[in-house]
Amino acid sequence: MTAAIAVDVLLDGTLLTLNRAVGVLRRRNVAVEGLALGPSGDGGTSRMTFVLHTDAATADRVVQQFRKIVGVHAVEVTTAQDPRDPSDINGGAAMSSSTVRVFYDADADPARLEGRVIAVVGYGSQGHAHALNLRESGARVIVGLRESGKSWLRAKDEGLDVRSVADAARAADVIMMLVPDQEARAVYEAGVAGALRAGKTLLFAHGFNVHFNEIVPPTDVDVAMIAPKSPGHLVRSEFQAGRGVPGLVAVHQDASGQALANALAYAAGIGCTRAGVLETTFREETETDLFGEQAVLCGGVTALVQAGFETLTAAGYAPEIAYFECLHELKLIVDLMYRGGMKFMRYSISDTAEYGDYTRGPRIVNDKVKAEMQQLLREIQSGAFAREWIAETRGGARRFAEFRRDAADHPIERVGARLRAMMPWTEEGKARPQPLTPSPRRGEGERARA
């Protein structure tokens, strides 16, 4: 007998865990209503709620599968009330004002791409993936590039229609900007701005230039963002495997009244709605992306690794050992967190390491460090960082080049290059000539045959 069964799941607040949870529902192919995702009130975790319309035995199997997911902390089941919310008129998972809407294949209409020409401006990691995925989804794709460069030849070799940026933009109904932040304004002004007219859609994969008013599109075009949360090679390989990577969607300007629907159709074309597309804003995506890069993922991690290396070598420890302890093994820890959050990482390491994590970690990332993080965030929010970076690139990027030279010359890089040459899977290891298999000594073959 079919019944309405409400399920409440407490899980890690990571896209990977969310993707696993949604995967259970998709594989079971059960009727689901009222899917909502929001903060749990317990730091670092989220709460997913939904209603299953199925029999008790099937619901129990779904719940048992949820409990086996790495990153899920608790699952509760109750008798459901009618979950339908008449205020949810835009599709997607039904979300409250404090939660995030998530869109899937069922919320997107790929038919919206039919008869429309999509110009992908740029053919780097993301541009390559977007263009090929869209083409294989049945869309007509033009790649806009500088003529006769390496990217032009690569795109031609893939059988794509390659034109100048201006020609691609003129022919397109949808224009996706996939060029570096510091180059986007010049590319836009030289080749895209003059081609925009009412009814066209201008897309971005990062909100930087729109949010900081480097690019100000005309008011009669739709402006939206589709931002896959993976590098381009993974966007491509997951699509080819019949899966997808999570993404973000935001609408900055809805001139047609259909900007969200059209953006979701594009997201479906590159495979993101297979995994889930979270709704955000240009401001939120831009400011959180910059903060993550500066405070944690790039600036924070590299400064921490380098400081640890310098501390050990200054105390007389071998640079090779310091490299292994402070840089090489970082991948092992990050892989564990990527797989199942910090809880899974701590489950997987030794008790000694876990105790040191709890008791010494806060002494490194202390209140002073958190205050500096808050200052970084204020500089991002005010536009101070964006103005600094734009001025640097337009002034010839001399300081930037100096930073690169100094970083490349640090002892950790020289030691690391020697050690990585020992590892065939690294860049240095791949470039190192591999020893040939020794030939049998003269006479050995004859003795073996005798």
Would you mind describing this structure in some detail?
With 450 residues, this protein is α/β, with parallel strands linked by helices. Helix content is 51%, strand content 18%. It contains 21 helices and 13 strands. The protein has helices at residues 15-28, 56-67, 125-136, 150-157, 165-171, 181-192, 208-211, 232-240, 259-270, 272-275, 282-297, 299-314, 319-328, 330-348, 351-364, 367-382, 384-394, 398-408, 411-420, 427-431, 444-449, and strands at residues 3-12, 31-39, 45-54, 72-79, 102-103, 117-121, 140-145, 161-164, 174-177, 201-204, 222-228, 247-253, 277-279. The strands form 2 sheets. Strands 5-13-12-11-10-9-6-7-8 form a 9-stranded mixed β-sheet, sandwiched between helices. Helix 12 (299-314) runs antiparallel to helix 13 (319-328). It is globular.
Brief write-up:
The chain has 450 residues and is of the alpha/beta class. The protein has helices at residues 15-28, 56-67, 125-136, 150-157, 165-171, 181-192, 208-211, 232-240, 259-270, 272-275, 282-297, 299-314, 319-328, 330-348, 351-364, 367-382, 384-394, 398-408, 411-420, 427-431, 444-449; strands at residues 3-12, 31-39, 45-54, 72-79, 102-103, 117-121, 140-145, 161-164, 174-177, 201-204, 222-228, 247-253, 277-279. The strands form 2 sheets. A 9-stranded mixed sheet has the order 5-13-12-11-10-9-6-7-8, with helices on both faces. Strands 2-3-1-4 form a 4-stranded antiparallel sheet.
